[in-house]
Amino acid sequence: MSAVPPASQGPGADGEEPDYRFTLANERTYLAYLRTSLACYAGGLSAVQFLDLGRDRWPARILGIVLVGIGLITTAGAFRRWQANLTAMRRGDRLPVTRLPLMLGATIAVAGLIGLLFSLWR
What we know:
- The chain is mostly helical.
- The protein has helices at 20-50, 58-91, 100-121.
């Protein structure tokens, strides 16, 4: 009896099981996105807690909301990407293109610039 569950369960159930190395690489990518989303959560909460710009706290709150929001989007997008990649691998299709890395990189860069500007403004 095989330890691998039948292909009739889970995402992309209508195909065959891909090479385990590709499955594990897909899982590592998924976990890397989750680590990135955790860093966004921590950065957003830290901005709200520690970014002191005097009496006005709105810049820190906006930066915190943006970072936590991008963390939420990254968490959801990572799951969708993992699932879509697994389905494509099982069907023997090409891997789907995603804009998640571009969106994530651009948002973090903009948030970093905003944080830098507010830090210099202080």
